[in-house]
Amino acid sequence: MMDQDKTILCIGAGYVGGPTMAMIAAKCPEYKVTVADINADRIARWNSDRLPIYEPGLEQLVAQSRGRNLFFTTDVEKGIRESKIIFVSVNTPTKTFGSGAGKAADLQFWEKSARLIMECATEDKIVVEKSTLPVRAAEAIHRILQSNTKGLNFSVLSNPEFLAEGTAVADLEHPDRVLIGSMTTPDGHDSMERLVEIYAHWVPREKILTTNVWSSEMSKLVSNAMLAQRISSINSISALCEKTEADIQEVSHAIGMDSRIGGKFLRAGVGFGGSCFKKDILNLVYLCECYNLPEVAAYWEQVVRMNEYQERRFAERIVKNMFNTVSNKRIALFGFAFKADTGDTRESPAIHISNLLIGEHASLAIYDPKAMENARADLAGTEGKIEYFEDPYEAVRGAHAIALITDWKEFTAYDYGKIFTLMEKPAFIFDGRNILDHKRLYSIGFNVFPLGKPALTHF
Ligand SMILES: NC(=O)c1ccc[n+]([C@@H]2O[C@H](COP(=O)([O-])OP(=O)(O)OC[C@H]3O[C@@H](n4cnc5c(N)ncnc54)[C@H](O)[C@@H]3O)[C@@H](O)[C@H]2O)c1
After folding, report:
1. Tens of pLDDT along 25-47?
2. Cα→Cα distances 387→225, 325, 392, 423, Å
3. Which residues of the chain have pLDDT under 70?
4. Which CATH number fits domain 7-203: 3.90.180.10, 3.40.50.720, 3.30.470.20, 2.40.40.20?
5. Which pLDDT belongs to residue 141?
6. Which of the listed residues 275, 278, 342 should we mutate to test ligand 1's pocket, taking the one with most ligand atoms within 8 A of CB?
7. Domain residue spans in the chain?
Protein backbone atom coordinates (compact mmCIF):
# COMPACT_ATOMS: atom_id res chain seq x y z
CA MET A 1 0.00 0.00 0.00
CA MET A 2 1.28 3.43 -0.96
CA ASP A 3 1.69 5.79 1.98
CA GLN A 4 -0.87 8.55 1.26
CA ASP A 5 1.63 11.15 2.47
CA LYS A 6 4.14 10.03 -0.13
CA THR A 7 2.15 10.99 -3.17
CA ILE A 8 3.24 13.70 -5.57
CA LEU A 9 1.42 15.24 -8.50
CA CYS A 10 2.92 17.60 -11.02
CA ILE A 11 0.52 19.63 -13.13
CA GLY A 12 2.24 20.36 -16.45
CA ALA A 13 4.24 17.70 -18.31
CA GLY A 14 6.57 20.02 -20.21
CA TYR A 15 10.32 20.58 -20.36
CA VAL A 16 10.39 21.09 -16.60
CA GLY A 17 7.56 18.90 -15.25
CA GLY A 18 8.57 15.74 -17.14
CA PRO A 19 12.30 15.62 -16.34
CA THR A 20 12.03 16.90 -12.73
CA MET A 21 9.38 14.35 -11.82
CA ALA A 22 11.28 11.55 -13.57
CA MET A 23 14.28 12.42 -11.39
CA ILE A 24 12.23 12.53 -8.16
CA ALA A 25 10.59 9.19 -9.03
CA ALA A 26 13.96 7.59 -9.73
CA LYS A 27 15.55 8.88 -6.54
CA CYS A 28 12.55 8.42 -4.22
CA PRO A 29 11.11 4.98 -5.04
CA GLU A 30 8.79 5.07 -2.00
CA TYR A 31 6.93 8.05 -3.51
CA LYS A 32 4.21 7.67 -6.12
CA VAL A 33 4.78 10.42 -8.68
CA THR A 34 2.09 11.37 -11.18
CA VAL A 35 2.52 13.91 -13.96
CA ALA A 36 -0.71 15.30 -15.39
CA ASP A 37 -1.33 17.51 -18.40
CA ILE A 38 -4.35 18.64 -20.39
CA ASN A 39 -2.40 18.04 -23.59
CA ALA A 40 -3.36 14.44 -24.45
CA ASP A 41 -0.75 14.14 -27.24
CA ARG A 42 2.03 15.09 -24.88
CA ILE A 43 0.89 12.57 -22.29
CA ALA A 44 0.60 9.84 -24.95
CA ARG A 45 4.20 10.54 -25.96
CA TRP A 46 5.43 10.48 -22.36
CA ASN A 47 3.84 7.03 -22.21
CA SER A 48 5.51 5.92 -25.45
CA ASP A 49 9.05 5.25 -26.66
CA ARG A 50 9.06 8.61 -28.45
CA LEU A 51 9.19 11.16 -25.61
CA PRO A 52 7.82 14.63 -26.41
CA ILE A 53 11.15 16.32 -25.66
CA TYR A 54 14.75 15.44 -26.37
CA GLU A 55 17.28 15.56 -23.54
CA PRO A 56 20.41 13.44 -23.25
CA GLY A 57 19.77 10.63 -20.74
CA LEU A 58 16.05 11.33 -20.39
CA GLU A 59 14.79 8.14 -22.07
CA GLN A 60 16.77 5.95 -19.67
CA LEU A 61 15.68 8.03 -16.68
CA VAL A 62 11.99 7.75 -17.56
CA ALA A 63 12.28 4.03 -18.37
CA GLN A 64 13.72 3.44 -14.90
CA SER A 65 10.49 4.40 -13.09
CA ARG A 66 7.62 4.63 -15.58
CA GLY A 67 4.87 2.19 -14.61
CA ARG A 68 6.55 1.56 -11.26
CA ASN A 69 6.19 4.83 -9.33
CA LEU A 70 6.05 7.31 -12.22
CA PHE A 71 2.80 7.80 -14.12
CA PHE A 72 1.69 10.17 -16.87
CA THR A 73 -2.00 10.97 -17.16
CA THR A 74 -4.55 13.46 -18.48
CA ASP A 75 -6.71 13.02 -15.39
CA VAL A 76 -5.59 16.10 -13.48
CA GLU A 77 -8.55 15.98 -11.08
CA LYS A 78 -7.89 12.42 -9.94
CA GLY A 79 -4.24 13.32 -9.54
CA ILE A 80 -5.17 16.21 -7.25
CA ARG A 81 -7.50 14.07 -5.13
CA GLU A 82 -4.89 11.37 -4.69
CA SER A 83 -1.75 13.44 -4.04
CA LYS A 84 -0.51 15.25 -0.97
CA ILE A 85 2.18 17.37 -2.60
CA ILE A 86 1.25 19.17 -5.81
CA PHE A 87 3.89 20.79 -7.99
CA VAL A 88 2.54 23.20 -10.58
CA SER A 89 4.80 23.48 -13.60
CA VAL A 90 2.49 24.93 -16.20
CA ASN A 91 3.71 27.51 -18.70
CA THR A 92 3.86 31.17 -17.69
CA PRO A 93 4.43 32.97 -21.00
CA THR A 94 4.56 36.69 -21.59
CA LYS A 95 1.11 38.23 -21.62
CA THR A 96 -0.03 39.16 -25.11
CA PHE A 97 -3.15 41.15 -24.20
CA GLY A 98 -4.48 43.77 -21.83
CA SER A 99 -2.52 45.50 -19.13
CA GLY A 100 1.16 44.53 -19.08
CA ALA A 101 0.97 43.01 -22.60
CA GLY A 102 4.43 42.23 -23.96
CA LYS A 103 6.06 42.18 -20.52
CA ALA A 104 4.02 40.82 -17.64
CA ALA A 105 3.70 37.07 -17.05
CA ASP A 106 0.44 35.52 -18.17
CA LEU A 107 -0.74 33.69 -15.05
CA GLN A 108 -3.99 32.30 -16.41
CA PHE A 109 -2.76 28.68 -16.60
CA TRP A 110 -1.41 28.91 -13.09
CA GLU A 111 -4.58 30.39 -11.67
CA LYS A 112 -6.68 27.75 -13.45
CA SER A 113 -4.56 25.05 -11.84
CA ALA A 114 -4.86 26.67 -8.39
CA ARG A 115 -8.64 26.83 -8.71
CA LEU A 116 -8.84 23.22 -9.83
CA ILE A 117 -6.73 22.17 -6.85
CA MET A 118 -9.10 24.07 -4.57
CA GLU A 119 -12.18 22.46 -6.15
CA CYS A 120 -10.93 18.88 -6.21
CA ALA A 121 -9.07 18.73 -2.90
CA THR A 122 -10.68 16.83 -0.06
CA GLU A 123 -7.77 17.18 2.37
CA ASP A 124 -4.95 19.64 3.14
CA LYS A 125 -2.31 19.98 0.41
CA ILE A 126 1.14 21.37 -0.13
CA VAL A 127 1.23 23.35 -3.37
CA VAL A 128 4.65 23.98 -4.89
CA GLU A 129 5.39 26.73 -7.38
CA LYS A 130 7.68 25.05 -9.91
CA SER A 131 6.85 27.44 -12.74
CA THR A 132 8.73 30.73 -12.80
CA LEU A 133 6.41 33.36 -11.38
CA PRO A 134 6.51 37.07 -10.53
CA VAL A 135 7.57 38.00 -7.01
CA ARG A 136 4.64 37.80 -4.58
CA ALA A 137 2.68 35.38 -6.80
CA ALA A 138 2.55 32.97 -3.86
CA GLU A 139 0.48 35.51 -1.96
CA ALA A 140 -2.24 35.60 -4.63
CA ILE A 141 -2.18 31.83 -5.04
CA HIS A 142 -2.46 31.31 -1.30
CA ARG A 143 -5.43 33.68 -1.15
CA ILE A 144 -7.25 31.80 -3.91
CA LEU A 145 -6.61 28.43 -2.27
CA GLN A 146 -7.60 29.62 1.20
CA SER A 147 -10.91 30.93 -0.14
CA ASN A 148 -12.13 27.30 -0.18
CA THR A 149 -15.26 26.68 1.84
CA LYS A 150 -14.26 23.18 2.92
CA GLY A 151 -12.05 24.33 5.79
CA LEU A 152 -8.97 22.97 4.06
CA ASN A 153 -5.50 24.32 4.63
CA PHE A 154 -3.10 24.88 1.73
CA SER A 155 0.55 25.58 2.16
CA VAL A 156 2.32 27.32 -0.74
CA LEU A 157 6.03 26.80 -1.36
CA SER A 158 8.28 28.27 -4.02
CA ASN A 159 10.74 25.79 -5.55
CA PRO A 160 11.99 27.32 -8.80
CA GLU A 161 13.75 25.15 -11.32
CA PHE A 162 17.25 26.03 -12.49
CA LEU A 163 17.84 23.23 -15.00
CA ALA A 164 19.21 24.17 -18.39
CA GLU A 165 17.77 22.49 -21.46
CA GLY A 166 20.32 20.25 -23.15
CA THR A 167 21.78 19.27 -19.77
CA ALA A 168 18.52 18.85 -17.84
CA VAL A 169 19.15 15.34 -16.54
CA ALA A 170 22.69 16.11 -15.35
CA ASP A 171 21.52 19.41 -13.82
CA LEU A 172 18.72 17.66 -11.94
CA GLU A 173 21.00 14.93 -10.70
CA HIS A 174 23.78 17.29 -9.57
CA PRO A 175 22.18 20.71 -9.04
CA ASP A 176 24.35 23.66 -7.98
CA ARG A 177 21.61 24.24 -5.43
CA VAL A 178 17.95 23.51 -4.77
CA LEU A 179 15.99 26.52 -3.58
CA ILE A 180 12.90 26.22 -1.41
CA GLY A 181 11.02 29.29 -0.25
CA SER A 182 8.31 29.05 2.37
CA MET A 183 6.00 31.26 4.37
CA THR A 184 7.39 32.14 7.78
CA THR A 185 4.67 30.27 9.66
CA PRO A 186 4.90 26.95 11.53
CA ASP A 187 2.82 25.38 8.77
CA GLY A 188 5.09 26.87 6.07
CA HIS A 189 8.10 25.53 7.90
CA ASP A 190 6.66 22.00 8.17
CA SER A 191 5.83 21.94 4.47
CA MET A 192 9.30 23.15 3.60
CA GLU A 193 10.78 20.31 5.67
CA ARG A 194 8.70 17.82 3.65
CA LEU A 195 10.16 19.11 0.41
CA VAL A 196 13.69 19.22 1.81
CA GLU A 197 13.30 15.56 2.77
CA ILE A 198 12.46 14.65 -0.83
CA TYR A 199 15.48 16.41 -2.36
CA ALA A 200 17.77 15.16 0.41
CA HIS A 201 17.38 11.68 -1.11
CA TRP A 202 20.13 12.67 -3.55
CA VAL A 203 21.14 16.33 -3.08
CA PRO A 204 23.69 17.12 -0.33
CA ARG A 205 21.98 19.06 2.49
CA GLU A 206 24.31 22.05 2.17
CA LYS A 207 23.08 22.52 -1.39
CA ILE A 208 19.42 22.73 -0.32
CA LEU A 209 18.79 26.39 0.43
CA THR A 210 15.73 27.51 2.32
CA THR A 211 14.57 31.13 2.19
CA ASN A 212 11.45 33.15 2.56
CA VAL A 213 9.05 32.68 -0.31
CA TRP A 214 9.61 36.12 -1.87
CA SER A 215 13.40 35.70 -1.98
CA SER A 216 12.93 32.37 -3.71
CA GLU A 217 10.62 33.82 -6.36
CA MET A 218 12.97 36.77 -6.83
CA SER A 219 16.09 34.61 -7.10
CA LYS A 220 14.75 32.69 -10.08
CA LEU A 221 14.02 35.85 -12.07
CA VAL A 222 17.33 37.43 -11.12
CA SER A 223 19.29 34.28 -11.90
CA ASN A 224 17.99 34.24 -15.46
CA ALA A 225 18.41 38.00 -15.81
CA MET A 226 22.06 37.80 -14.70
CA LEU A 227 22.83 34.89 -17.05
CA ALA A 228 21.23 36.66 -20.01
CA GLN A 229 22.99 39.89 -19.06
CA ARG A 230 26.38 38.22 -19.41
CA ILE A 231 25.48 37.01 -22.89
CA SER A 232 24.26 40.43 -23.96
CA SER A 233 27.37 42.06 -22.48
CA ILE A 234 29.78 39.86 -24.38
CA ASN A 235 27.68 40.08 -27.55
CA SER A 236 27.77 43.88 -27.38
CA ILE A 237 31.57 43.67 -27.31
CA SER A 238 31.56 41.27 -30.28
CA ALA A 239 30.15 44.10 -32.38
CA LEU A 240 32.98 46.37 -31.28
CA CYS A 241 35.53 43.63 -31.99
CA GLU A 242 34.36 43.38 -35.58
CA LYS A 243 35.11 47.09 -36.02
CA THR A 244 38.51 47.05 -34.34
CA GLU A 245 40.13 43.71 -35.26
CA ALA A 246 40.10 42.65 -31.64
CA ASP A 247 39.11 38.97 -31.34
CA ILE A 248 36.13 38.25 -29.09
CA GLN A 249 37.36 34.76 -28.19
CA GLU A 250 40.69 36.16 -27.06
CA VAL A 251 38.90 38.89 -25.12
CA SER A 252 36.48 36.41 -23.46
CA HIS A 253 39.38 34.20 -22.48
CA ALA A 254 41.42 37.06 -21.09
CA ILE A 255 38.65 38.57 -19.00
CA GLY A 256 37.25 35.18 -17.95
CA MET A 257 40.56 34.27 -16.33
CA ASP A 258 39.88 36.99 -13.79
CA SER A 259 38.43 34.93 -10.97
CA ARG A 260 36.11 37.81 -10.07
CA ILE A 261 34.51 37.53 -13.53
CA GLY A 262 34.83 33.80 -14.29
CA GLY A 263 34.78 32.17 -17.70
CA LYS A 264 31.22 30.83 -17.99
CA PHE A 265 28.53 32.42 -20.15
CA LEU A 266 31.06 34.58 -21.94
CA ARG A 267 30.84 32.99 -25.38
CA ALA A 268 29.64 35.42 -27.99
CA GLY A 269 26.97 34.11 -30.34
CA VAL A 270 23.93 34.95 -32.40
CA GLY A 271 21.99 35.80 -29.24
CA PHE A 272 20.27 33.91 -26.47
CA GLY A 273 17.04 32.06 -27.07
CA GLY A 274 14.93 29.61 -25.14
CA SER A 275 11.55 30.01 -23.57
CA CYS A 276 12.80 31.65 -20.38
CA PHE A 277 15.44 34.37 -20.59
CA LYS A 278 13.45 36.93 -22.53
CA LYS A 279 10.16 36.34 -20.76
CA ASP A 280 11.71 36.30 -17.30
CA ILE A 281 13.65 39.53 -17.86
CA LEU A 282 10.54 41.22 -19.22
CA ASN A 283 8.68 39.95 -16.19
CA LEU A 284 11.36 41.56 -13.98
CA VAL A 285 11.14 44.77 -16.00
CA TYR A 286 7.38 44.83 -15.52
CA LEU A 287 7.73 44.33 -11.78
CA CYS A 288 10.17 47.25 -11.60
CA GLU A 289 7.76 49.42 -13.55
CA CYS A 290 4.89 48.42 -11.26
CA TYR A 291 6.96 49.36 -8.20
CA ASN A 292 7.87 52.66 -9.85
CA LEU A 293 11.54 51.91 -10.44
CA PRO A 294 11.94 53.11 -14.07
CA GLU A 295 15.77 53.25 -14.00
CA VAL A 296 15.99 49.64 -12.84
CA ALA A 297 13.43 48.59 -15.45
CA ALA A 298 15.33 50.33 -18.27
CA TYR A 299 18.62 48.76 -17.19
CA TRP A 300 17.28 45.20 -17.51
CA GLU A 301 15.20 45.87 -20.60
CA GLN A 302 18.38 46.79 -22.44
CA VAL A 303 19.57 43.16 -22.05
CA VAL A 304 16.67 42.06 -24.26
CA ARG A 305 17.14 44.91 -26.74
CA MET A 306 20.86 44.07 -27.09
CA ASN A 307 19.89 40.47 -27.86
CA GLU A 308 17.52 41.58 -30.61
CA TYR A 309 20.28 43.79 -31.99
CA GLN A 310 22.68 40.84 -32.09
CA GLU A 311 20.23 38.63 -34.02
CA ARG A 312 19.54 41.44 -36.48
CA ARG A 313 23.22 42.25 -36.79
CA PHE A 314 24.04 38.64 -37.75
CA ALA A 315 21.45 38.61 -40.53
CA GLU A 316 22.52 42.04 -41.77
CA ARG A 317 26.17 40.97 -41.83
CA ILE A 318 25.24 38.06 -44.10
CA VAL A 319 23.46 40.33 -46.55
CA LYS A 320 26.15 43.02 -46.53
CA ASN A 321 29.02 40.62 -47.15
CA MET A 322 27.24 38.72 -49.90
CA PHE A 323 27.48 41.82 -52.07
CA ASN A 324 24.42 43.46 -50.49
CA THR A 325 21.92 40.98 -51.87
CA VAL A 326 20.77 37.50 -50.94
CA SER A 327 17.76 37.65 -53.19
CA ASN A 328 17.17 34.16 -54.65
CA LYS A 329 20.41 32.92 -53.10
CA ARG A 330 20.25 29.69 -51.19
CA ILE A 331 21.44 29.91 -47.59
CA ALA A 332 21.88 26.70 -45.61
CA LEU A 333 21.05 27.09 -41.94
CA PHE A 334 23.05 24.76 -39.72
CA GLY A 335 20.91 24.40 -36.63
CA PHE A 336 17.53 25.72 -35.63
CA ALA A 337 17.34 24.81 -31.93
CA PHE A 338 18.15 27.65 -29.55
CA LYS A 339 21.15 25.68 -28.28
CA ALA A 340 22.82 22.32 -28.76
CA ASP A 341 21.44 19.06 -27.36
CA THR A 342 17.83 20.12 -27.41
CA GLY A 343 15.05 20.10 -29.98
CA ASP A 344 13.51 23.19 -28.37
CA THR A 345 13.22 26.18 -30.68
CA ARG A 346 11.21 28.54 -28.49
CA GLU A 347 12.57 32.10 -29.00
CA SER A 348 15.44 30.61 -30.99
CA PRO A 349 17.52 33.26 -32.79
CA ALA A 350 17.06 30.99 -35.82
CA ILE A 351 13.43 32.10 -36.09
CA HIS A 352 14.24 35.80 -36.20
CA ILE A 353 17.26 35.34 -38.47
CA SER A 354 15.20 33.17 -40.87
CA ASN A 355 12.49 35.79 -41.04
CA LEU A 356 15.00 38.56 -41.72
CA LEU A 357 16.66 36.54 -44.51
CA ILE A 358 13.31 35.60 -46.01
CA GLY A 359 12.45 39.29 -45.94
CA GLU A 360 15.55 39.75 -48.13
CA HIS A 361 14.13 37.07 -50.51
CA ALA A 362 16.77 34.48 -49.69
CA SER A 363 15.80 30.84 -50.05
CA LEU A 364 16.55 28.79 -46.93
CA ALA A 365 17.71 25.19 -46.60
CA ILE A 366 17.34 24.17 -42.97
CA TYR A 367 19.00 21.30 -41.18
CA ASP A 368 19.01 20.53 -37.44
CA PRO A 369 19.74 17.15 -35.81
CA LYS A 370 16.75 17.31 -33.42
CA ALA A 371 14.62 20.37 -34.10
CA MET A 372 13.16 19.81 -37.56
CA GLU A 373 9.63 19.21 -36.31
CA ASN A 374 9.67 22.43 -34.30
CA ALA A 375 11.37 24.39 -37.10
CA ARG A 376 8.60 23.43 -39.52
CA ALA A 377 5.98 24.55 -36.99
CA ASP A 378 7.79 27.85 -36.27
CA LEU A 379 8.03 28.80 -39.94
CA ALA A 380 4.64 27.42 -41.01
CA GLY A 381 2.79 30.01 -43.03
CA THR A 382 5.94 32.05 -43.70
CA GLU A 383 5.90 33.41 -47.21
CA GLY A 384 9.11 32.44 -48.98
CA LYS A 385 11.15 29.49 -50.13
CA ILE A 386 12.10 27.24 -47.23
CA GLU A 387 13.23 23.65 -47.55
CA TYR A 388 13.92 21.20 -44.74
CA PHE A 389 16.59 18.52 -44.95
CA GLU A 390 17.39 15.36 -43.02
CA ASP A 391 20.92 15.38 -44.43
CA PRO A 392 23.26 18.39 -44.07
CA TYR A 393 25.09 17.53 -47.29
CA GLU A 394 21.81 17.83 -49.19
CA ALA A 395 21.04 21.15 -47.48
CA VAL A 396 24.28 22.70 -48.77
CA ARG A 397 23.92 21.48 -52.36
CA GLY A 398 23.83 24.62 -54.52
CA ALA A 399 23.96 26.94 -51.49
CA HIS A 400 25.80 30.25 -51.64
CA ALA A 401 26.31 30.40 -47.90
CA ILE A 402 26.12 28.45 -44.67
CA ALA A 403 24.86 30.25 -41.58
CA LEU A 404 25.73 28.29 -38.45
CA ILE A 405 23.15 29.14 -35.80
CA THR A 406 23.29 26.36 -33.19
CA ASP A 407 26.40 25.00 -31.45
CA TRP A 408 25.72 21.32 -32.22
CA LYS A 409 29.00 19.43 -31.91
CA GLU A 410 28.36 17.41 -35.07
CA PHE A 411 28.79 20.57 -37.18
CA THR A 412 32.50 20.56 -36.33
CA ALA A 413 32.93 17.01 -37.64
CA TYR A 414 31.58 17.47 -41.18
CA ASP A 415 33.67 17.03 -44.32
CA TYR A 416 33.94 20.69 -45.31
CA GLY A 417 36.07 19.82 -48.35
CA LYS A 418 33.10 17.88 -49.72
CA ILE A 419 30.68 20.61 -48.66
CA PHE A 420 32.76 23.21 -50.52
CA THR A 421 32.50 21.23 -53.75
CA LEU A 422 28.71 21.05 -53.41
CA MET A 423 28.25 24.82 -52.99
CA GLU A 424 28.06 27.78 -55.36
CA LYS A 425 31.18 29.95 -55.52
CA PRO A 426 32.24 32.17 -53.91
CA ALA A 427 31.18 30.08 -50.93
CA PHE A 428 30.53 31.79 -47.60
CA ILE A 429 30.38 30.53 -44.04
CA PHE A 430 28.97 32.70 -41.25
CA ASP A 431 29.85 30.98 -38.00
CA GLY A 432 27.39 32.40 -35.48
CA ARG A 433 28.88 30.35 -32.63
CA ASN A 434 32.60 30.35 -33.42
CA ILE A 435 32.81 26.58 -33.23
CA LEU A 436 34.38 25.79 -36.62
CA ASP A 437 38.05 25.70 -37.59
CA HIS A 438 38.13 29.01 -39.45
CA LYS A 439 41.67 28.81 -40.79
CA ARG A 440 41.02 25.38 -42.24
CA LEU A 441 37.80 26.48 -43.88
CA TYR A 442 39.63 29.43 -45.38
CA SER A 443 42.33 27.16 -46.77
CA ILE A 444 39.65 24.98 -48.36
CA GLY A 445 38.43 28.06 -50.21
CA PHE A 446 35.57 29.40 -48.08
CA ASN A 447 35.13 33.06 -47.24
CA VAL A 448 34.79 32.80 -43.49
CA PHE A 449 32.94 35.22 -41.26
CA PRO A 450 33.34 34.31 -37.62
CA LEU A 451 31.51 36.31 -34.99
CA GLY A 452 33.38 39.12 -33.29
CA LYS A 453 36.66 38.59 -35.07
CA PRO A 454 38.21 39.49 -38.41
CA ALA A 455 36.83 37.80 -41.52
CA LEU A 456 39.01 35.53 -43.66
CA THR A 457 38.22 36.28 -47.28
CA HIS A 458 39.74 35.52 -50.65
CA PHE A 459 38.83 38.90 -52.12
N1 LIG B 1 12.10 25.20 -20.02
C2 LIG B 1 13.03 25.50 -19.13
O3 LIG B 1 14.22 25.32 -19.37
C4 LIG B 1 12.65 26.05 -17.79
C5 LIG B 1 13.62 26.11 -16.79
C6 LIG B 1 13.26 26.60 -15.55
C7 LIG B 1 11.96 27.06 -15.33
N8 LIG B 1 11.03 27.00 -16.30
C9 LIG B 1 9.67 27.45 -16.00
O10 LIG B 1 8.86 26.29 -15.79
C11 LIG B 1 7.53 26.52 -16.28
C12 LIG B 1 7.17 25.46 -17.29
O13 LIG B 1 8.06 25.55 -18.37
P14 LIG B 1 8.14 24.43 -19.50
O15 LIG B 1 9.28 24.81 -20.39
O16 LIG B 1 8.09 23.09 -18.88
O17 LIG B 1 6.75 24.73 -20.25
P18 LIG B 1 5.98 23.78 -21.29
O19 LIG B 1 5.18 24.69 -22.14
O20 LIG B 1 6.96 22.84 -21.93
O21 LIG B 1 5.03 22.89 -20.38
C22 LIG B 1 3.94 23.39 -19.70
C23 LIG B 1 2.84 22.32 -19.75
O24 LIG B 1 1.77 22.75 -18.91
C25 LIG B 1 0.56 22.26 -19.49
N26 LIG B 1 -0.58 22.98 -18.94
C27 LIG B 1 -0.94 24.28 -19.12
N28 LIG B 1 -2.06 24.56 -18.45
C29 LIG B 1 -2.43 23.41 -17.82
C30 LIG B 1 -3.50 23.07 -16.96
N31 LIG B 1 -4.41 23.98 -16.61
N32 LIG B 1 -3.57 21.80 -16.51
C33 LIG B 1 -2.66 20.88 -16.87
N34 LIG B 1 -1.60 21.15 -17.67
C35 LIG B 1 -1.48 22.40 -18.14
C36 LIG B 1 0.77 22.51 -20.97
O37 LIG B 1 -0.12 21.69 -21.73
C38 LIG B 1 2.24 22.12 -21.15
O39 LIG B 1 2.40 20.78 -21.55
C40 LIG B 1 7.53 27.95 -16.83
O41 LIG B 1 7.07 28.81 -15.82
C42 LIG B 1 8.99 28.21 -17.11
O43 LIG B 1 9.31 29.58 -17.01
C44 LIG B 1 11.35 26.49 -17.53
Report:
1. 999 999 999 999 999 999 999 99
2. 35, 20, 12, 16
3. 1-2
4. 3.40.50.720
5. 95
6. 275
7. 7-203, 212-459
